[in-house]
Design goal:
Largest sheet: 6 strands, mixed
Subcellular location: Endomembrane system
Family: Belongs to the GTR/RAG GTP-binding protein family.
Keywords: GTP-binding, Hydrolase, Membrane, Nucleotide-binding
Number of strands: 11
Bound molecules: guanosine-5'-triphosphate, magnesium ion
Structural class: alpha/beta
Order of helices and strands: HEHEEHEHEHEHHEEHEEEH
InterPro entries: Gtr1_RagA, P-loop_NTPase, RagC/D
Pfam family, one: Gtr1_RagA
Radius of gyration: 21 Å
């Protein structure tokens, strides 16, 4: 895996909604206003730089005992195989872990099932003030009546401390349920949660539900969606991916955090689970082959800023991976005949890469300068000349 780095995080927890997929690129500049400033693992970030406040986006995990919180953390961030989680011990105390070697340096805090996170001794005000997302894990294979009561109580208390928290429910261990029961369970949980909120007059709490299991890719997909909400530049990234796809005739593109296989962004076409799994598998294959055959002498990271890979599928499609920087890779699926114009794809990729750097650089510069100035425009290329935009359609966001 890539060498870990100490780039710090800045700012408070995410504080406002993210724009829809068709939000303009200009939005990235506007978002500066709300003071939610996290720093990301960009290549040119000073390794030791710790920003003012040095705060990381925090994801708090809660749920009944044995619901699967530790297993989720281990599988997603420590590459533990799902079967090994059978031997994971019950967590005895509040466990906080920083996710490093990753594009997004966030922190996870797990509260053991037997402990109330709102115990005054645990300083809940401080924890939930910096909490970006509150993730409640429900064991779908167990009776969840008691868990739902707890969840309702915790969500309401957390909301009163910080109304900007993203509330997420993982209806977990669905691997043990048949398709029909899965749907019924989801509907039942959703209905009960909404009823409880309505009874308490707290309908303003917006909750997202995800069906998850550590035995397939659903846990990575769900975690991706949670993490994406902590990325302020999401709308700009989605727009850039759309533009790249249009210009290169790519069917689907994911911007992956390679170390965790979380996708930081994807284009605005719907995510098909099979395509996502294929792209995840490509990352695994690339890293495995690179680890085994990549270096003869000294051990080096299995991927770096210059990594790339191409896999041709029997379905007349091509999967290709291009590293954007040390942490991020673009993984795309394209029809074989469209991959023949490789020069165009290469050129568009370079434009895309520069644009990504700009999206994050603008914010970084502003943070470093400590200014709250407004950015008028984010442009796809350095010069803005028509020549340098060849291959990419003009960004619709620009007027
Ligand atoms: N079938 C299935 N089992 C799972 C899944 N996720 C976790 N488990 C199992 O659930 C059990 C409990 O997992 P833990 O991760 O220790 O649960 P926890 O929520 O951290 O529990 P505490 O630390 O006691 O609060 C383990 O035996 C896991 O193997 C899943 O997606 N499917
Ligand atoms: Mg645990």
């Amino acid at each position: 895996m890539a060498a870990s780095h100490g780039a710090g995080m800045m700012g408070a927890a995410a504080t406002s909604d993210y724009g829809s997929s068709n939000t303009s690129l200009d939005r990235a500049g506007d978002e500066q206003e709300d003071g939610s400033n996290f720093e990301y693992g960009l290549d040119d970030v000073d390794e030791d730089a710790s920003g003012p406040g040095d705060m990381k986006p925090t994801i708090v995990l809660m749920g009944q005992k044995r619901s699967g919180k530790t297993s989720i953390r281990k599988v997603v961030f420590q590459k533990m195989s799902p079967n090994e989680t059978l031997f994971v011990e019950s967590t005895a105390r509040v466990t906080s872990e920083s996710v490093t070697s990753s594009f997004i340096n966030f922190e996870t805090i797990e509260f053991p099932g037997q402990m109330s996170p709102f115990d005054a001794a645990l300083d809940p005000v401080s924890t939930f003030t910096r909490c970006g997302a509150l993730l409640f894990v429900l064991d779908a294979q167990d009776d969840y009546t008691e868990a739902l009561k707890r969840m309702h109580e915790y969500f309401v208390k957390a909301y009163r401390i910080n109304s900007n928290i993203k509330f997420e429910v993982f209806v977990h261990k669905v691997d043990g349920l048949g398709e029909d029961i899965k749907m019924d369970t989801q509907r039942d949980i959703f209905q009960r949660v909404q009823d409880d909120l309505a009874d308490a007059g707290m309908e303003q709490i917006h909750i997202n539900f995800h069906m998850t299991s550590i035995y397939d890719h659903s846990i990575f997909e769900a975690f991706s969606k949670v993490v994406q909400k902590l990325i302020r530049q999401l709308a700009a990234l989605e727009r850039l991916l759309d533009i790249f796809n249009q210009g290169s005739n790519v069917e689907k593109a994911f911007l992956f955090d390679v170390a965790s296989k979380i996708y930081v962004a994807t284009d605005t076409s719907p995510v098909d689970m099979a395509t996502y799994e294929l792209c995840c598998d490509m990352i695994d294959v690339t890293i495995d082959i690179s680890s085994i055959y990549g270096s003869r002498d000294e051990p080096v990271a299995p991927f770096d800023a210059n990594s790339s890979a191409v896999i041709r599928l029997s379905t007349q499609q091509v999967l290709f991976l291009r590293q954007v920087n040390r942490y991020l890779a673009l993984v795309c699926i394209v029809r074989a005949e469209n991959y023949e114009k490789q020069g165009l794809i290469d050129y568009n990729f370079q434009c895309f890469k520069r644009a990504i750097e700009k999206v994050f650089e603008v914010r970084k510069k502003m943070l470093l300068a400590g200014t709250r100035c407004k950015v008028d425009r984010l442009r796809l290329d350095d010069s803005g000349s028509s020549e340098s935009r060849q291959g990419l359609p003009p960004p619709a966001a620009r007027s």
